[in-house]
């Protein structure tokens, strides 16, 4: 690995992140083609997952790709799907060298992309900025290896950890800059997940607004009995922007039929300890292709996911006000008796957002 390899891979990673939230179930890949020290093409996976980054970059470069080096954030695919394998496309274009960050764990690839390149005489260098790439690809990697998406839990709290007053008033604890940051966060995820209690209390739209972004995340609600607002924003817009409902196997048939009629996708999941099993919920979302899910509460759903060890990243917006013990806590009961039982995270970043502070914690 050279300093040049690191520099161009960093650029490829930056490009790849542009696909977060709109390429699932495919990985968000970036690709940079370099010849004689000059960038001749740059690309990332397009919305919907195709075209792949490599074929986009090769199309940009044309004949100039012959003899170039390709920097790709994930091993080029090796299987025939809706498009030919990217590894074969790189060989056919005459690329002389391919530098990748990670091997693709997908059983259809898993080293075969690198093997195709090497067998054709292409020099292959792997593992460049692998740690950064693994963080960027965490959702795709988790779905392939564990069957579930990456989960980000967002909390907007008062200084004393409250999300609402005793009367339920919660708009707005954080300021407009923090709320805009949340919309950007939604845009970088495949789906936004809330519990049934939040859907009933807040009637949220769960959409990305005022960001100049066309695509919308899937709206997911976890509600065992599907007792959700029948005239709320989600019900009114389910045919326009996807609404997926995670529900128990015992949800009333009338409710199931009514939500299907509104255009929602119903996803039955198993129960555990009297509520929807959190692992089963995420397995269902992973099976449906989701790689990155943003959970926006409520408190009980957040506590359940944390307690099950299924939160990968916490994004906590802290506001400069206190609501007191009578306010609604940001997390529901977790049944912890000892500090050793509490889930722990490592602080990755903190910064000011308007009048509030954002803390990002990772498992």
Describe the structure.
It is a single chain. With 363 residues, this protein is α/β, with parallel strands linked by helices. 29% of the residues lie in helices and 23% in strands. The chain has a nine-stranded mixed β-sheet with strand order 11-10-9-8-14-6-15-18-17. A five-stranded mixed β-sheet has the order 2-1-3-4-5, sandwiched between helices. Strands 7-16 form a two-stranded antiparallel sheet. Helix 3 packs parallel to helix 4 (112-119). The longest helix is centred in the N-terminal third of the chain and has 14 residues, at 3-16. The protein is globular.
Summarize the topology.
Blueprint: H1 3-16, E1 30-35, E2 38-44, H2 53-61, E3 69-72, H3 86-92, E4 97-100, H4 112-119, E5 123-125, H5 130-136, H6 138-146, E6 150-157, E7 162-164, H7 176-187, E8 191-195, H8 196-202, E9 218-222, H9 233-237, E10 243-247, H10 253-262, E11 265-268, E12 271-272, E13 275-276, H11 278-287, E14 292-295, H12 299-307, E15 313-318, E16 328-329, E17 346-353, E18 356-362
Parallel strand pairs: 3-4, 4-5, 6-14, 6-15, 8-9, 8-14, 9-10, 10-11
Antiparallel strand pairs: 1-2, 1-3, 7-16, 12-13, 15-18, 17-18
Helix pairs in contact: 3-4
């Amino acid at each position: 690995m050279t300093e040049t390899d690191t520099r161009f891979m960093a650029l490829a990673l930056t490009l790849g992140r542009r696909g977060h939230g709109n390429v699932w179930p495919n990985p968000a890949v970036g690709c940079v083609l370099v010849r004689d020290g000059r960038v001749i093409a740059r690309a990332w996976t397009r919305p919907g997952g195709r075209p792949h980054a490599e074929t986009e970059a090769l199309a940009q470069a044309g004949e100039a790709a012959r003899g170039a080096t390709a920097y790709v954030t994930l091993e080029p695919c090796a299987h025939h799907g809706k498009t030919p394998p990217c590894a074969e496309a790189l060989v056919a274009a005459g690329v002389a060298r391919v530098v990748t960050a990670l091997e693709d764990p997908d059983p259809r690839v898993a080293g075969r992309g690198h093997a195709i390149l090497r067998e054709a005489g292409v020099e292959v260098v792997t593992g460049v900025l692998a740690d950064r790439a693994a963080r960027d690809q965490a959702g795709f990697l988790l779905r392939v290896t564990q069957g579930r998406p990456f989960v980000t839990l967002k909390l907007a709290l008062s200084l004393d950890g409250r999300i609402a007053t005793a009367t339920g008033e919660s708009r707005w604890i954080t300021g407009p800059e923090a709320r805009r940051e949340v919309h950007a966060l939604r845009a970088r995820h495949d789906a936004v997940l809330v519990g049934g209690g939040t859907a009933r209390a807040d009637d949220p739209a769960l959409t990305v607004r005022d960001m100049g972004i066309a695509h919308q995340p899937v709206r997911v609600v976890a509600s065992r009995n599907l007792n959700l607002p029948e005239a709320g924003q989600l019900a009114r817009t389910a045919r326009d922007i996807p609404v997926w409902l995670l529900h128990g196997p015992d949800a009333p048939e009338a409710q199931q039929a009514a939500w299907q009629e509104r255009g929602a996708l119903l996803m039955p999941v198993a129960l555990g300890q009297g509520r929807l099993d959190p692992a089963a919920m995420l397995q269902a979302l992973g099976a449906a292709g989701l790689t990155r899910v943003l959970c926006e509460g409520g408190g009980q759903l957040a506590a359940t996911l944390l307690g099950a060890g299924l939160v990968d990243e916490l994004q906590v917006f802290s506001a400069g006000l206190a609501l007191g013990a009578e306010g609604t806590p940001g997390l529901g009961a977790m049944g912890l008796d000892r500090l050793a039982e509490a889930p722990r995270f490592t602080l990755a970043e903190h910064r000011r957002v308007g009048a509030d502070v954002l803390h990002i914690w990772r498992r």
